[in-house]
Amino acid sequence: MDLDQHGRLRNVLWIHPRYRAAYEEFHDVVSFDTTYLVNMYKMSFVFIVSVNHHEHSILLGCALVTHENWLQAMNGVHPNAIITDQCPSINLAIRDVMPNMTHRYSIWHILSKVPEKFKHVDNFDRCSVDFKGIVKYHLDNNVWLTGLYDERAKWVQVYLYETFWAGMISTQRSEGVHAYFD
Q: What is the pTM of this model?
């Protein structure tokens, strides 16, 4: 537990010793999922998940966090790669704390935003199939698409093929853990 100078909770991190031992063996790829729940204090309930040698999801820990303190609890051992959503604060923390690690955006989170981002586009199904539709439907200046293009090295497979991902392309493995806490 981490308290501020007024004795208020800032972070709670729960890691069973078995999970710490599993992390020593399976820290190649970690999914850091902050999308499950945000409480009234704006603290995310985070799942940290990896994959074992049988390709089974393994829970490495849970936390209520306002900022990332998980590496410290894992004895400073950095994962080789991490998958997250596009949360700006997580991006900054990863860049600052683990600058040499490969960071990938969850493709599921990107694709789940498409209907919302393009609800204003008439006949979007046709536009998404026809590449020329980007110009035809005036999407060439779309801020969200431009941002995705600028960050393509974090989600387009061709830029990520040199990194071992244990078959993970999204934080989807955390979804099974979500059901446990529902």
A: 0.69
